[in-house]
Amino acid sequence: MSTARGLLVAGTTSDAGKSVVTSALCRALARRGIRVAPFKAQNMSNNSMVVADPDGRAAEIGRAQWVQALAARAEPETAMNPVLLKPGGDRTSHVVLRGRPSGRLRAGEFAGGRATLTEAAHAALAELRSRYDVVVCEGAGGVAEINLRAHDYVNMGLARAADLPVVVVGDIDRGGVFAALYGSLALLDPADQALVAGFVINKFRGDAALLDPGLKTLEDLTGRPVLGVLPWQRDLWLDSEDSLALTAREADAAAAPALRVAVVMLPRISNFTDVDALCLEPDLRVDFVTDPRPLASADVVVLPGTRATLADLEWLRSRGLDTAITGHARRGGTVLGLCGGCQMLGRTIRDPDGVEGSAGRTAAGLGLLDLETVFTRDKVLRLPSGKWRGVPVGGYEIHHGRVRTGRGEAFPGGLRDGSVYGTMWHGSLEHDAFRGAWLAAAAEHAGRDGGRFGRVSFAAAREARLDLLADLVEEHLDMDAVLRLIAEGPPVLPTVRGELR
Fold first, then answer.
1. Which keywords annotate this record (predicted)?
2. What percent of the chain has pLDDT over 90?
3. Which of these is catalytic: 94, 328, 399, 426?
């Protein structure tokens, strides 16, 4: 392909499968020798990753785009996710613009305060298109968010600006997929509809022949093909973009685990992909909990990261989880705090400048580690590495809180005191040897055999899933049609009018 082309993967709703289809197409195109890059103009997620920008400075992008870059066999960079919104509450988001903090966006500004963000997104896409053969773009939310269309630069606004063909994905497992696909198209204005080139149905279970009458009717009514039906796959899992799918992993836990792990599902949980590597360990049962009772039977308690440490610490106390966690530690049970969770395990947390809310606020931590946290306006973005007990380990840091450690054993990115561990490094458990060594220590605390952990390669498991995704689209999507859309742009198709017009 001599000129840079692209495609927008949109959805009928959030979590319809846009990220999965985008990742799958990136890997399928990369396997064909095409230089491909992922792109999401704006991601709203507290799950992010640190990357190294060309200037050598650490920067931040959404975790989903980082994984999609791996799928594309491309180097992750901020142009792939120029705008990252990190929800700080129901009405405020922290803005990360080209990898750097850039203030806050309040709910009232969503309609008219996005000119700068739009310009950054369009410039980033143009930059990628100048350097890659193909850019596979992912939309956000639902494609027919008509209340936001006037200032949209993520879905049809982006497609219009870049003349991108659009494929709309619907999740049949939710029910109502035909109405969702037809209705999404019908609600768009004619100029937007002209760019919608086809549909993809995701997560189908059963006999595909049962779908044929519905597929034909949808194609007859819209004049657009269903490019494929992707089957529901039990073992299909990717580093998730948000926390919608967290509880679904409980059912996959081992029947007779060597260790039981309870992950506290904080209301403002962030970077929860830290525990993905634990979910891959065959001898662990990993449950996500919101009340104290499951902690009584757990061997390991994990406090993950959070976008609002002080608020989630209050939540812990309101539910009695603080007492359950400290009691678990005093009985010799293992506790691991990750980033915000690490800060909660300390003695005090201070917020003199109001980074997380009211200026001058101070709260007592759980007192399980001798460390103090002070929030500052400048964000720490780092890609650190080191060793623990002779085992190499690395990770990434994304936080405002500066942690000062006191008495205890040094632990990568933090501190250890007996069976309590705290680290500010995200991603450390993805390092297989380190994960195995830490789980062996946790098993020792529980009086169990710890020699069977860390044998699963997290990186290999991720690669296998990306290849599985590519296999799925190669088998179940009309890839020739997809390649034509990318090369030729959107075809001329009829306008569909809904009953409400």
1. Cobalamin biosynthesis, Glutamine amidotransferase
2. 73
3. 426
The residue-averaged pLDDT of 107-112 equals 58
pLDDT in tens, 347-393: 999 999 888 877 888 999 999 999 999 999 888 999 999 999 999 99
Q: Is residue 193 exposed (0-12), middle (13-18) or buried (19+ Cβ within 10 Å)?
A: buried
Closest by Cα among 496, 497, 490 to 5: 490
Domains in the chain and their CATH numbers? 5-236+463-488 (3.40.50.300), 259-452 (3.40.50.880)
Contacts of 406 (CB under 8 A, 6+ apart): 370, 371, 372, 415
Tokens 């269903």 belong to 226
CA dihedral sign, ordered 94, 248, 239, 266: positive
Average pLDDT of 151-169? Answer: 96
Tokens of 413: 């990115």
Identity of residue 286: V
C-alpha to C-alpha distance for 14 and 170, rounded to whole angstroms: 10
Whole-angstrom distance, CA of residue 275 vs CA of residue 302: 8
Is 339 one of the annotated active-site residues of the chain? yes
Half-sphere exposure of 469 (CA within 13 A, CB side): 30
Q: What angle do CA 283, 287, 293 make, to 5 degrees?
A: 120
Residue 187 phi, psi (nearest 5): -80, -15
Residues 6+ apart with CB under 8 A from 279: 237, 249, 252, 286
Active site residue 426: yes
Report CA torsion sign: 445, 446, 448, 454.
Answer: negative
CB hemisphere CA count around 77 (13 angstroms): 15
What distance in Å separates the CA atoms of residue 437 and residue 253, rounded to the nearest whole number? 21
Which is it for the CA torsion 241, 246, 248, 251, positive or negative? positive
Catalytic residue among 26, 137, 339, 342: 339
